[in-house]
Design goal:
The chain has about 160 residues and is of the alpha+beta class. It is about 60% helix and about 15% strand. Strands 1-4-5 form a three-stranded antiparallel β-sheet. Strands 2-6-3 form a three-stranded mixed β-sheet. The C terminus is likely disordered.
């Protein structure tokens, strides 16, 4: 049951983000309709903006289809494994990467650490989510350090 609540919250968050994108696209469309491109530079800018609006609408449609798939799966009592597979496909389509590897070289960039940083090796508590296109963290993960540093680790630190 705990997983279903988290999934529901994730779906709600995605729906809110899609709504924000939709409102922004409407504002962009309004601005572009008000101004008529008269120069070559303005025409190029208008064409670029038009392509971005078309892409945003396509992305929104894709996200709505994904939300509908997730809702249908939940409504039909899909198993956790099936939902995880469906979410994996949605992540792939959206270019979203789930980072849950404590050995990831970008660990410090994608995670918020709790507890003492000098107490051992990192352990992921909650995964981070990263936009593969930009490398930007969509949602920071949570990690903590566990265990104790070995005397060998402390010796290596002193030689640097």
């Amino acid at each position: 049951m705990f997983g279903n609540r988290q999934q529901f919250e994730a779906i709600e968050k995605i729906a809110k983000l899609i709504d924000q994108i939709d409102r922004r696209v409407e504002r962009i469309e309004t601005v572009t309709l008000v101004r008529e491109p008269g120069t070559a530079a303005a025409a190029e800018a208008y064409e670029g903006l038009r392509k971005q609006v078309v892409a945003a609408v396509q992305n929104r449609t894709s996200h709505l289809a994904q939300l509908a798939q997730i809702d249908a799966a939940v409504a039909h009592g899909a198993a956790a494994e099936d939902l995880a597979e469906l979410l994996g496909r949605c992540f792939e389509q959206a270019g979203l990467e789930k980072v849950d590897d404590a050995d990831d070289p970008e660990l410090a960039r994608y995670f918020k650490f709790v507890g003492d940083r000098d107490s051992g090796r990192p352990e992921v508590i909650e995964a981070a989510y990263v936009d593969r296109a930009t490398g930007r963290a969509v949602r920071l993960g949570v990690a903590k350090y566990v265990g104790h540093r070995s005397p060998q680790d402390e010796g290596e630190e002193g030689t640097e």
